[in-house]
Amino acid sequence: MLRGAAAVLKTQAPRVFCEIHDGYLKDLGQSVHDVAGFLTRAGYDVRGLRVEDLGAETALEACSHLYAAPPGAGNDQTEAT
């Protein structure tokens, strides 16, 4: 889905809140690191989150969601609400 949105990510620079399903990604031959890498290469600042504690620092391996913000937009997920 994100690859299909590459032009929108580049031209519109929306913030992205993405749920991570490790099993599904594995079935596709992908990982959370691949998703985060795609967003980073698109110029986004990426942060792993756990919905149980959105303010906590969370490693990508332990995250349930990714929050990505374009440069200059800040990477504080509370700004997006």
The count of β-strands is 3
Query: Stretches where pLDDT falls below 50 for ≥5 residues?
Result: none
Distance between the termini: 23 Å
What portion of the residues fall into strands of 2 or more residues? 15-25%
Q: Can you put this structure into words, describing what you see?
A:
This protein is an alpha+beta fold and 81 residues long. It has one domain (3-72). The protein is built from 3 helices and 3 strands. It has helices spanning 6-11, 22-27, 32-41, and strands at 16-19, 45-49, 65-69. It has a 3-stranded antiparallel sheet with strand order 1-3-2, with helices on one face. The model has no long low-confidence stretch (mean pLDDT 88).
Describe, in short, the structure shown.
With 81 residues, this protein is α+β, with helices and mostly antiparallel strands. The chain has one domain (3-72).
List the helices and strands and how they pair.
Elements: H1 6-11, E1 16-19, H2 22-27, H3 32-41, E2 45-49, E3 65-69
Antiparallel strand pairs: 1-3, 2-3
Offer a few descriptive terms.
81 residues, alpha+beta, three-stranded antiparallel β-sheet, 27% helix, 17% strand
